[in-house]
Amino acid sequence: MKQQRWFQLLGLANRARKIISGEELVIKEVKANKAKLVLLANDASSNTAKKIEDKTTYYGVPLRRVPDRYMLGQAIGKEARVVVAVVDEGFAKKLEMLLDEKTWG
Length: 105
What we know:
The protein is built from five helices and four strands, in the order αβαβαβαβα. The chain is an alpha+beta fold. The chain has helices at 2-15, 23-31, 46-59, 69-75, 89-100, and strands spanning 19-21, 37-41, 63-66, 83-86. A four-stranded mixed sheet has the order 1-4-2-3, sandwiched between helices.
């Protein structure tokens, strides 16, 4: 049940237009200090994962992992997505809290 909470909150953030998806767009938001939280799918390629991890570490943006690209895409009503940036502080803090509870494998 707790897993659904972050999923639903991410969908709400999407409807509020507070997320950016896609590797290049997310990196652009991180560099511009607009990204407050980055969500990365566990099944991302090693190159993509390294690039996102390096950028978020360098720019001091929190990074959280989610189970897979299909779940991340489904949460925002799109096809599979590997990486998503949350650009709203309130949504980011709540998502971070919910994802830190880690209720999946």
